[in-house]
Design goal:
heterodimer, A: 970 residues, alpha/beta, seven-stranded mixed beta sheet, six-stranded mixed barrel, 31 helices, globular, B: 218 residues, mainly alpha, 11 helices, extended
């Protein structure tokens, strides 16, 4: 029995199970390298002989003749082969995040954050990164259809005009428009014009992940619904009551960036912030907490009340069901940081917890300092559930004659008790405008293909109200695709102008710029319109008395946004489906998350199929044990179990929506029955595991202050000459590229993984292939737990190629396909690689990926448009791995060589570093003594993973420093 | 037991060995010859084009600079092909109804691009950048030959990696003064090596990195 590790990656590893040991001991997963087809020896030799002969002949083929097609009129400023960048906004749940899109010969191929946009500041999240894949999705809606037949946009307009003319006689009564969150000022104005033209018409809004509770909470506290904007840069102390501000939401890239600024120990930040999190289910924010307690939803409410009592904002007899040490510590810290603290309630928490949070912030003097209250950002801030309920009522009573659904998927994600999918059939005519086929589109009479965000002119507001122009990167791929602006214009009966004219005319009328043309150009060029953020609203917090809520007795099922496919919007994206979820590392599925203790009590293990029942509705789903989950609390992420969609969306995971009621949107009490069957959930948590070694180094701030070398003392580095090989020389006239990853700021959000996939043409392999351990991501984020499974500390460690100076992979390659270049990069030469996989076998970091199959084979022409032309697309039998984005290095080197200078620090940013909202990844030249990377590597926090093997890795880590309250217990 | 092989068999065997070696050598020679022949490399094979464009006429006789049409050569990876608009700057004025130019006029009229056949086509896993080569003193003619003497365009050099490396290994044998890059008729001086070394030094050629795989392959 080996010694217990400080950190463990899964419950199986914690228990040291035999299956887990086998994973660790094998170089590839048990199935990865096996020849699993039943092929006889004779047939095998025949195939080998034939392929050898064909390979020989194949080498003799001449290159086919290719066409070269110049422009008729070349756009000004365009140099073929050189990328152009355009600013635009991408929305999540309607809210804008600023993006800069890289365009190659008119094709958008890569999304970066827009440093000038308040919701991004240069960072991105996984959804933004996956936008290009969505654009080139061959399963998109391509044609206007009516009752299953392909028709034209003009056919639809004729039919619409007839219908509207009829309805106009009754003042438009019977017209219903259902949208998602609309933050586009232009679309808002158009909708109001529509309502003015048809006074009987109604505008309903539905969004499955909405702010109903948060706004109701603000209404409780202030009498008016308000949105919250936080300033994490100013906050010394943050208490989160199930608010996953680092993990999800349209402000996530911004909040992560601000939060990380107060965690940069390596860069000399002294006044670290401290984070307290009470939450029922593990989240990224919980993983970053200095103090975290898992709490069942009922207990969370008591904790909020107890905190309020300690702060003197509410008076209530305390219940003793919660962990009072947490409350005492948090309250004492809050009181010590008046005006510099922040209390946050999660969007899925009920209104009264939001009201408590508001009161506490007001009492602590945080309002106006770390938290701003602004008017609701969206154009129609109605209660989403009430709005949909009203529509369902009208549908039921047959009042709806024309139902227009602009995007979204209410037939899939509406509360189960509304039975929206059935009720919408009662509308006389139903029209759907959307980019993808889905459950709602299938139930409508007319399906109109919508232009993608990257194909449209529009505008959108960010979480703080800042407006930005959305500009197209490409003409709509499918003729007939229209934007919501054009659609509403058609309903208004105008000779439909283009979206460009509609948006421009709107902003011209606003008169925000003295010189319209100059202002417009600046807005389009910059992405965000200056000074459009909403002003703070003065608000007086009222005292409210807490209502006693019965604590649920049985099992509670929580509904949460899925970390990779959100509410189901992104379930058609292969990149996001194959992205291991931050804490479970599940791919292609969701699962019922359960704490190990509750699972043991109920006799359940991972992969067991269970039937969850509430109010006569059942859902069958697989169980997944997760450390850190509150007892008697289950979590099922939303968005899986799609029935209609592209090939990727359907057939994966379990649909949670049938259990979600309009009266209980955040959680429901359920009974659980074991079905006796199992389901193969696939998690990459154990893939590429590293046996028995502590690869992660963590210390607390007080430990660091007591002993500044605490991180480096955790391992020793051998002298450079302790090697049998001739040491590599890297003279200072060359570059010496290197990378650091700050584990204190990394939040494990996965943006780097998708960014790398997008930049480097990394294929997806599918669920079965992942099961065999064949996933291709060049950078993976390892999740470690520390302590006990009931409430572990959670740590993230992104692992790209280490670019070892003494690389073990190089010495074993028989064909010199992996070797050093003069910059010290460990390069992989695809054309030399014969696929022996010796290199992967000898890599101690397990960062090499092998193309077991032709993963890029057979992709459609439209998917090819999304490939980055700067990176070779690898074929079967070839090893690949992180190259530090060699294409970006070479491009910057060429520019520098043309200008006869050295590459400047910061000129090269690999895709992972550029995407990182926390700026945790720093790239630079070791031979430039002024570079940031040199300064970071000189700190006492710097360590190399497995540096004791004398691999001399160029990628190093800055150990994680946590900041728990010194007096409090952990 | 009688002898199976007579004494003469030794001679046959020896002759057979020599013959086999010669055969192998012959196969090797044949493969090499085919591999480097114009059939495989495409060297000296004029390509049929929608318009029989003559560099000899435009660049050689009329003396139009390379960069008038290949505008990206100093700033981008691709030298670029001229858009139809560039052709029409002159051909809207001269040879306006020449039958040979019908595809150009059709392209201009319909807004549809002319589809040329590529003459110089590197494999997709090679990332070549014109701008750096031009900047560091590699003349157009170094790789493209005397384009100004080609009535139809053909490939002058094999574009094989071995051929690329000849220059990457010893750039001093090939670089020319910056002013001569676009001069088609520049002749290598007798003391090229000494001059080349000076030019390579002045241009700060990173000859080590030029031999790295990562310089051209990604």
């Amino acid at each position: 029995m080996k010694a217990r590790l400080d950190h463990w990656r899964s419950l199986e590893e914690y228990a040291d199970s035999p299956e887990c040991r086998e994973w660790l001991e094998r170089e590839f997963a048990p199935m990865a390298s096996e020849w699993e087809d039943a092929v006889s020896r004779r047939r095998f030799l025949k195939l080998m002989g034939a392929s050898l002969a064909l390979a020989g002949l194949g080498a003799c083929t001449r290159q086919p003749l290719e066409k070269i097609v110049p422009y008729v009129t070349q756009p000004v400023g365009m140099v073929p082969g050189e990328p152009l960048h355009f600013a635009t906004s991408l929305t999540l749940g309607g809210f804008a995040r600023g993006a800069l899109i890289e365009s190659r010969e008119g094709r958008p191929v890569k999304v970066e954050g827009n440093p000038a946009h308040p919701a991004s500041l240069g960072g991105t999240d996984v959804f933004m990164q996956a936008a290009t894949l969505d654009l080139y999705d061959p399963g998109r809606a391509k044609t206007v259809t009516h009752a299953g037949a392909i028709v034209t946009w003009n056919d639809f307009r004729t039919a619409l005009a007839g219908e509207l003319a009829r309805l106009a006689n009754q003042g438009g009564a019977g017209i219903r428009v259902l949208t998602g969150n609309v933050t586009s000022p232009t679309l808002g104005a158009q909708m109001r014009a529509l309502l003015a033209k048809y006074p009987g018409a109604k505008w309903h809004v539905w969004e499955p992940l909405n702010r109903d509770a948060a706004r109701a909470g603000a209404e409780l506290a202030f009498g008016v619904p308000l949105d919250v904007v936080c300033d994490f840069e100013k906050a010394d102390l943050v208490v989160s009551l199930d608010a996953d501000f680092l993990g999800t939401g349209p402000a996530q890239p911004r909040y992560v960036r601000d939060f990380a600024k107060r965690r940069r120990v390596a860069e000399g930040v002294e006044n670290l912030n401290r984070l307290y999190v009470a939450e029922p289910t593990p989240s990224i924010t919980g993983a970053r907490a200095d103090h975290r307690i898992p709490t069942a939803p009922g207990v969370l409410s008591q904790i909020a009340e107890a905190l309020g009592t300690e702060l003197g904002v509410i008076s209530k007899q305390l219940d003793a069901a919660y962990d009072s040490a947490f409350v005492t510590a948090a309250a004492a810290d809050l009181l010590a940081h008046r005006g510099r603290s922040l209390v946050l309630a999660g969007e899925s928490q009920p209104a009264h917890i939001h009201a408590f949070a508001h009161q506490m912030n007001a009492a602590l003097g945080n309002v106006g300092e770390t938290v701003r209250l602004i008017a609701p950002v969206d154009e129609n801030p109605v209660n989403r559930t009430a709005s949909l309920r009203e529509l369902v009522g009208d549908l039921e009573s047959g009042k709806v004659e024309l139902l227009v659904v602009l995007g979204g998927n209410p037939a899939f994600d509406a509360p189960a008790d509304f039975a929206f999918a059935e009720k919408m059939l009662r509308a006389k005519t139903c029209v759907f405008l959307g980019t993808h086929p889905n459950e709602t589109a299938a139930a409508c009479d007319w399906q109109i293909p919508a232009a993608h965000e990257l194909e449209s002119w529009s505008d959108a507001r960010a979480f703080d109200g800042t407006a930005g122009i959305v500009q197209p990167l490409i003409e709509p791929l499918y003729t007939g695709a229209v934007t919501p602006h054009e659609f509403i214009a058609a309903m208004l009966g105008e000779a439909v102008p283009s979206s460009y004219e509609i948006v421009r005319d709107f902003w011209r009328e606003q008169k925000v710029w003295e010189d319209f043309e100059a202002g417009w150009e600046k807005a389009v060029r910059g992405g965000a319109i200056a000074d459009t953020a909403f002003a703070s609203k003065p608000a007086e917090a009222r005292t409210i008395t807490p209502e006693t809520k019965a604590t649920p007795k049985g099992l509670t099922l929580l509904f949460r946004a899925d970390p990779t496919i959100h509410d189901g919007t992104f379930s058609g994206s292969t990149w996001l489906q194959e992205l291991p979820k931050p804490l479970t590392k599940l791919v292609w599925d969701n699962a019922v998350l359960i704490s190990p203790r509750t699972a043991a009590r109920l006799g359940l293990t991972t992969n067991d199929l269970v039937e969850l029942t509430n109010a006569a509705r059942q859902v069958v789903a697989a169980i997944f044990l997760i450390p850190g989950q509150a007892d008697d609390t289950l979590t099922l992420h939303l968005g899986y179990g799609r029935r209609i969609g592209n090939a990727t969306a359907t057939g994966h995971g379990f649909d949670a929506y049938p259990l979600r009621m309009s009266t209980a949107m955040d959680s429901t009490e359920v009974t659980l029955r074991k079905t006796g069957e199992t389901y193969p959930l696939i998690t990459t948590q154990q893939h590429f595991g590293l046996e028995g070694r502590n690869l992660l180094r963590v210390a607390t701030l007080s430990e660091l202050r007591d002993k500044p070398t605490v991180i480096q003392d955790m391992g020793k580095i051998p002298a450079p000459d302790e090697t049998l090989y001739n040491p590599h020389e890297f003279p200072s006239k060359h570059y010496a590229w290197a990378l650091t990853i700050d584990l204190s700021t990394c939040v494990g959000c996965n943006a780097c993984v998708v960014a790398c996939q997008s930049e480097n043409n990394i294929p997806v392999v599918g669920k079965e292939e992942v099961q065999r351990g064949r996933e291709m991501h060049w950078i993976r984020v390892d999740t470690y737990f520390a302590g006990v499974p009931e409430n572990p500390g959670t740590h993230f460690q992104p692992v790209p190629c280490m670019h070892c100076e003494n690389a073990p992979c190089e010495v074993v390659c028989p064909v010199a396909a992996t070797l050093h270049d003069s910059d010290g990069l460990n390069v992989q030469v695809y054309n030399r690689c014969v696929g022996t996989r010796y290199c992967s076998n000898n890599c101690p970091y397990k960062v090499r990926r092998f193309n077991f199959l032709e993963y890029n084979g057979g992709i459609s022409p439209v998917e090819k448009l999304g490939k980055n032309p700067e990176v070779s697309v690898r074929s079967r039998g070839v090893m690949e791995k992180c190259s530090y984005c060699i294409q970006r290095i070479e491009s910057a080197r060429t520019t520098a060589a043309i200008e006869e200078r050295r590459v400047r620090d910061g000129e090269i940013t690999p895709a992972c570093a550029q995407a990182c909202p926390a700026e945790a990844i720093t790239f630079g030249d070791l031979n430039d003594s002024t570079s940031r990377v040199v300064k970071l590597k000189a700190t006492k926090l710097n360590y190399g993973m497995l540096a004791e093997l004398n691999t001399r890795p160029r990628t190093t880590y800055l150990g994680r420093i946590t900041n728990p309250q010194p007096e409090a217990r952990a | 037991m009688p002898q199976i092989f007579t004494r003469a068999s030794n001679t046959f065997a020896r002759a057979g060995i020599v013959f086999a070696v010669l055969c192998l050598g012959g196969v090797a020679w044949a493969t090499y010859t085919v591999w480097w022949s114009p059939y495989m490399t495409g060297v000296d094979a004029p390509r049929a084009q929608p318009v029989p464009f003559s560099h000899k006429h435009h660049a050689g006789e009329l003396g139009i600079d390379c960069r008038y049409c290949h505008t990206g050569v100093e700033s981008g990876r691709f030298a670029g092909l001229p858009p139809t608009e560039t052709c029409m700057t002159c051909h809207s004025q001269i040879w306006t109804d020449a039958p040979l130019l019908a595809p150009v006029r059709a392209s201009w009229r319909d807004g549809k691009a002319i589809e040329w056949t590529r003459v110089h086509d590197l494999p997709d896993f090679v990332y070549f950048d014109h701008s750096i080569h031009v900047r560091k003193g590699v003349g157009c003619a170094e790789c493209h030959g005397r384009v100004d003497e080609m009535p139809l365009t053909w490939q002058a050099k094999p574009l094989y990696m071995k051929w690329c490396l000849e220059c990457h290994r010893a750039p001093e044998q090939h670089v020319r003064p910056p002013g001569e890059v676009f001069n088609m008729s520049w002749e290598r001086p007798a003391e090229q090596r000494a001059r080349g070394l000076a030019l390579a030094g002045a241009a700060h050629l990173d000859t080590t990195h030029m031999m790295d795989c990562s310089a051209c392959h990604r």
